[in-house]
Structures are given as structure tokens and as C-alpha cells.
Amino acid sequence: MSKYDVIVLGSGPGGYVTAIRASQLGLKTAIVEKESLGGVCLNWGCIPTKALLKSAQVFEYLKHADSYGLTVKEFDKDFGKVIERSRGVAEGMSKGVQFLMKKNKIEVINGFGKIKPGKKVDVDGKEYSADHIIIATGARSRELPNLKQDGKKVIGYREAMTLKKQPKSMIVVGSGAIGVEFAHFYNSMGTEVTIVEFLPNLVPLEDEDVSKQFERSFKKAGIKVMTNSSVEKLDTSGKLVKATVKTSKGEETLEAEIVLSAVGIASNLENIGLEDVGIVTDKGKIMVNDWYQTNIPGYYAIGDVVPGPALAHVASAEGITCVEKIAGLHVEPINYGNIPGCTYASPEIASVGMTEKQAKDAGYELKVGKFPFSASGKASASGEKDGFVKVIFDAKYGEWLGCHMIGAGVTDMIAEAVLGRKLETTGHEVLKAIHPHPTMSEAVMEAVADAYGEVIHL
Question: Which GO terms describe its molecular function (predicted)?
Fold first, then answer.
């Protein structure tokens, strides 16, 4: 039986990052993967969807070339090649993870891993043992009883990024990041898209101002938006799917070639041996402490299988924290109040910390500032004037409570707010940090200036 210091189950951005950090710390490490290295994120999620969205962005530029003083007489799309490019990007990233495994001397064990008592892992009948076993098996598309996926007419995110033929019409159920990103992509490609959201706003976890701006942008792009609505049943017997949608005004029947179910994710906990080992779960999640230890010594869990935001960067951070603690390093628990969230549709959304409503409900007296990109020189020059940066500060002590952005490229800007909050910066310190001109990032400084009554460009 092969013996290791650490065995990681799953090679997504939680698992493979954990394995690399363990190896860097001198721990003999193996990783178990049933499909492709990189997991869902690299192969079916974060990376290939961004490749699709880049194709959509370039296509939008071509459609509006005249806005930039350019004449493009003839252009078209090849949907198959757009999909092919996305798959190529994913394969390249997966090969990159293979290289990292070799570079860090991590043994890759291909197959379905199942934990066993006595700190053992069974992989398709062969046993391995380790002092520390870390579960990082990720998640999959969640299925609702009335939205059963058949992979053809009713699909999840995997099928959405590998369709052989572009559908003429699509209903997207759910307006979280997955739903709105695919809604934007297919709409840009020319598919007639309707998005159905149960809650009152699109991207309902975001600050209300962001949600309202986002909804306006989606409607302007030609996407039909139905909020306060739910798909009650589907009829897939005909050529088109018939969806019965319950709205505040009564029932409505929609028809489309494809229904994309984007109603969240479910953790991959089935058949991995949790019951055999006696590991405690609650509401479909493995219960862990601040160091990701389960109730059974020697077994840990990170990423989408534990409570908290199901995000790639969170899984990576949890894995690093977990193995650094195992290795005896001094580590601080992760501050889940300072996790950035990003949505890569058009316009992009990025946020960290409290929304204005959450801050008010928590009893803070607030200073709120907002700077629209319509007043930004760089945004005007880029032809990307939709959106704004909004900042929320505690009026008493100047603590940066939240930052919410919507617009072009904001997912690359949010790290300033994350770092500022981590370092406990105040509004006045942000104001005195000179931002380069002309950039989109100036909007952060200007929004802070607005909060403190010192804004120059409004």
C-alpha cells in the first residue's frame, strides 16, 4: 500500500492548489482525479466560460465598429469554432496543471476516490493511505424536481458550453453568475434569450443599485427579463420546450429550443465514503472548523463541499490555510467577510463586503459615494460608459464596509478594495493614494471622494 503525508481528493482549484502548497511544505503528496486535472473550474466553468465571453465581446465590437470610426464590411460568426476555441483554452489550462503536478513531484492517481476508515483512500479497488486526507470533490449543477435535465432540451452549464448548434431561442432559469454569463453570451451570439429569476432582482446577492443597473443593461441588450417569476413545469414533448412560468400577474407560457437550468450547485458528497468514516454533514455540506478539520481526526474538507461561498478563489485559499496548519505554520482563519465576488457578463460586476442595506441593517451610520463611468475619461474613450463604482464607509471610524462595481473590466479592479479592507484602510487614505489617469480605476478614488464631499469630476 502506497503511503503519503497528504492525499487530496479532487483536482479543481481547491484540490490542485492544496496539493502544490503541501508539496512546497515538504509533504509527500498525491492527488486523486476521476476526470481531467483542473476539475470543473478549468474544464467546465471559470476558464472556458471566459473564453466564450471573450468571443462574444469581440463579436460585439465588430457589430459596433462604426462607433469607433471603423468600417467592417463583412463579418460573421462560426459558432462551432467559438466552442472549439473555448475547449482549446480549457485543455491548455488542464495541461498546465499536469505540468505543475510533475514540477512539484505530486503523484496523480486517476480514478474515483473513496475515503475509508483508518486514513485510507480506495481508488477503483486499489488502496492508498495518508496521515492527512483532504476532500475537495467540488460540486455540480443542481437539479430541481420540476427542471429535470435531459442534456438535450433542458441542460446545465456543461452542455451550455459544448452545444453543437446555436439555438435560436433559450430560457435561462436563475440569474446568479452562471445564468447571466450564459444569457449574455448567447444573446451576443444572436440567440433570443429570456431570463427567469424567482427573486425581485437579477443577480440578487448584489447591492440593489448594481442589480437595477444590470437589469437595465440586459434589457437594453435585448434580453427579456422576468423577475419575481418561477418556472413551474416544462413540456419537452414537442419541437420546442414549453415552460409554464408563474409571475406576479399570473401564469405565462414561454417557448424555446433550449432551457438552461442555472439554479445553483450541489456538493459532490455521494459515494465518497463519508458515512463509512463517520464524517458529519449538514444540509449537503461537510462540517469543518476554522482549519477545515472534520469531526474525524486526519480528515479535512475544503471548497464547494463545505459551507461558504462556492468560488474557485475561496477553495484555493481554504486549501492553502488547511495544509499550512497541517505543516505547523502560524496561520490566521480566513475572513469570509472580505471575499470578492465577480460576474463576467457585460457589464461585469465585482463586489466585496457589505451592501448598503446590510450595512444599514447592521446599525452603521454611513458615508456612501458613487462615481458613474459616464464621467470617466477612460470609459468614454473606450466606449464603455455604462456602470459605476459605489463605496460604503462607516461614518464614525472611516472603516471601508463595502465596495460594489458594475462596468467594463471591474473584475480586475476589485482587488484594490479587498486589499484596502484587509489592511484596514480608511476613506481618507484611499483619497490620498494617487490613482493613474486616465484609468477606470480612478473611479474608486472618485467614489470615495464623493462619499466625503470632495469629488472633483462630478
Answer: dihydrolipoyl dehydrogenase (NADH) activity
